[in-house]
Amino acid sequence: MTDMIDKSSAAPAPSNSRTPAVSGRDRARYLTASGVALWGAQIGQVAVPLTAVTALHAGASATALLRTALTLPFVLLGLPVGAWLDRVPRRPVMIAADLVRATALTTVPVAYWCHALTMAQLLAVVTVQGMATVFFDLATQSLVKDLAPGALLAPTNARLATLTQTAMIAAPPLAGWAAGLLNPPTVLLAMAVGYVWSAAWLSALALREHPAASATAPHRRLEREITEGLAFVARQPVLRAVLLSGSLVNIGTAGVTTLLPVLTLTELGWSEGELGLFLGVGGVGGLTGALGAVRLARRLGAGRAAVLVGIAVAPLALTLPLLGHPVPAPLAALAWALVMLKIGFDSVLMMTFRQQATPAHLMARVNGTMRVFFTGAVALGATTAGTLAATTDTRTALTVAAAALACAWLPAALSPLRRMTTLVVQ
Prior knowledge:
This protein is an all-alpha fold. 76% of the residues lie in helices and 0% in strands. α9 runs parallel beside α13, α9 (237-267) packs antiparallel against α14 and α13 packs antiparallel against α14. It is globular and about 60 Å long. The protein starts with 23 loop residues before the first helix and ends in a 13-residue tail after the last helix.
């Protein structure tokens, strides 16, 4: 750990603890499995509502309900699942989650081909999908620290962030193309095959996980362990900064992506293709930030890089409410790409900072706590944006969302995180 981690908040590793050797082949297998799962999740965000619309003639309220069913499990289950994962090996949980997701998705095309698909079944499948994803995501965020010890952690996080950004850019159009070529339920079957493939790669890992401290000690009440995770995040200054920064980013991006379609399609008269191109430029910016994060952090110092990049580009978000009048679309697109570059950059650094500040026996609980707050921030950002737009106007609401993005670097600048120099976890 670095010298700015509060020494009172994390117990040092025992002197006789040994880090098992982890092969590059294991990391490659893990990244392959995670990449398949990430692409599947992004494809599903398009293929599931397309299935509802084309096969069941669902309206906007039904597709919104499907989106809620996919994200609500993170809010409801993040804390208890995180506490439970600190008691058990994580890799078997990831494999089981993949197989559950594959099984649930397979029922959709089967029912469709039998002319028996209903909205209730699709909603149930999405709910199961969301619940399994909670287990998978929290387990994979905790397992990576065993797979990539020391100086390997930040580059591994960078590769994961690159996979995420690539999936965000390419998976939605791929899903739309595949749905047109085949049909949306068949795309869900392809996703199911992908999850089975992910489980197969995870099964091939030779890694022996570090036993969690709580797994070898007498089990305590789950509520007490959840509280312990929450309390650790609350008193750890680096984790507080990561939580506040990520929450501001999620509030801002949720608000911006909720309001941009209204502003561009309704007020500015853009086509859907023009809006897609604008958002795609942002995706390229996010990918660029993830790719360059480790190199820039090593050159400037990790904490200093996080603050300086934020100061340099985050305020450009304030150009978004001025899109069209007076800021021309190409200039606003460049600003959006730079803001997303900061978000992609942070996706690598903030995850590594979180892992530096968290002892192994609390990792899943901290990840669960973060995921609950981050998911809640997305809901808060979207709801606030819609409410403000209804009570004031679209540009005013967009200004509030953009201000959250513009200030996202402040928690890092005001915390010990700014003094962190390396991305190495001891």
